[in-house]
Amino acid sequence: MICIRADGNQQIGTGHIMRCLSLADALREQGGEITFVTAEPYFQRLIQTRGYPCTVLGTAYDRMEEELSVFLPLLEREQPELVILDSYFVTPEYMKAIKGISKLFYIDDLNAFDYPADAVVNYAVYGPEMPYPQNKKYFLGPRYVPLRRQFQGLGQRIVRDHVEDVLISTGGTDPYHVALRCAKYLREHPPRENMKFHFVLGAMNQDVAELEGIAENFPLIQLHRQVADMCSLMCQCDLAVSAAGTTLYELCACGLPTVTYILADNQIQGARAFQKAGLMPCAGDIRADGDFFSGLFYKINSLALDRKCREDISCMMREAVDGYGARRLASAVNCLL
């Protein structure tokens, strides 16, 4: 049995849980038995709906050492072969305590310290360039990004001459109200008539009612909630806007030209790496740029008017991410058992 320890909430978003669910699905396909442990109950129902047991510790997600008095007895009772850990709030002491009971696999973005784990994955574009100490197994780069099965093996995108559909993805929580502010900008600066904007609203978006009011009177804005097949929606669109999280790798798998932006410190390095690689331009940091939205839509319009650029970017995106990362990562995990 493999235990996955991850969290999600209004403060840290949904990314840790969603990528762990993708990995869990791939492990299950390879015959694994998976259980989840979270600090809080916010995603317990979703995890259970996906077919996995989920234990809620009732602890603080950002003070992980304090949960050891609850978590360690659970591990001693269940005796998992491996713990997969996905949190920015781990400490060396916390990880050593877990490793005293089970093998440990850590999902990393930051290289914050020398992790006392058996193996580490960092699937970021910049992952292979990180100066990790060479004292354990590493799985680095987008080959290991754990995407959902629907993103596997997609064919080459046909890039249309004219941009008609634009996807706006602002994450599970949208703490800076990017969707709402984009909608208001579009209302004040209407695009050309045949361009539609598809807003994907996360489960914890606080602006749904106001966005529905705007969309009701502005038909070029279409709202999407609880999207089961995100891949199909991405493939339908010609351009995208997305915060610099795991969604960027889904967009790469679809070959959908994208303008990214930063909304948290842990996204800065990724956004810069994507831009440096020529995979997608970055519109800046929503927290710091007072003229963010005019710059964002300038970049959208520039890409919309340059079909050759969109075609080249789409090809590079597909070359960077083929969608089979979850399968590769699950095989890597199984090699540790």
Architecture blueprint of SSEs:
Elements (H helix, E strand, L loop, with lengths): L1 E5 L8 H15 L4 E5 L5 H6 L4 E3 L11 H11 L3 E5 L5 H8 L3 E5 L11 E4 L14 E4 L24 E5 L8 H11 L7 E6 L6 H10 L3 E5 L4 H7 L2 E5 L3 H8 L3 E5 L5 H9 L5 E4 L6 H13 L2 H14 L4 H12 L1
Parallel strand pairs: 1-2, 1-4, 2-3, 4-5, 5-6, 6-7, 8-9, 8-11, 9-10, 11-12, 12-13
3D structure, described in words:
Helices cover 37% and strands 18% of the residues. The protein is an alpha/beta fold. The strands form 2 sheets. A 7-stranded parallel β-sheet has the order 3-2-1-4-5-6-7, with helices on both faces. Strands 10-9-8-11-12-13 form a 6-stranded parallel β-sheet, with helices on both faces. Helix 6 links the parallel strand 9 and strand 10 (221-225). The protein has 2 domains: 2-149 and 323-336, Rossmann fold, CATH 3.40.50.11190; 154-320, Rossmann fold.
**Nearest-integer average pLDDT:** 95
> Any guess at the CATH architecture of the largest domain?
3-Layer(aba) Sandwich
What is the strand tally?
A: 13
What name goes with the CATH superfamily of the largest domain? Glycogen Phosphorylase B
Oligomeric form of this entry?
single chain
Strand order of the largest sheet: 3-2-1-4-5-6-7
How much helical structure, as a percent, in the residues?
25-40%
- What overall geometry do the principal axes of the alpha carbons give? globular
Quick structural summary:
With 337 residues, the chain is α/β, with parallel strands linked by helices. It has helices spanning 15-29, 44-49, 68-78, 92-99, 178-188, 208-217, 230-236, 247-254, 268-276, 292-304, 307-320, 325-336; strands spanning 2-6, 34-38, 54-56, 82-86, 103-107, 119-122, 137-140, 165-169, 196-201, 221-225, 239-243, 258-262, 282-285.
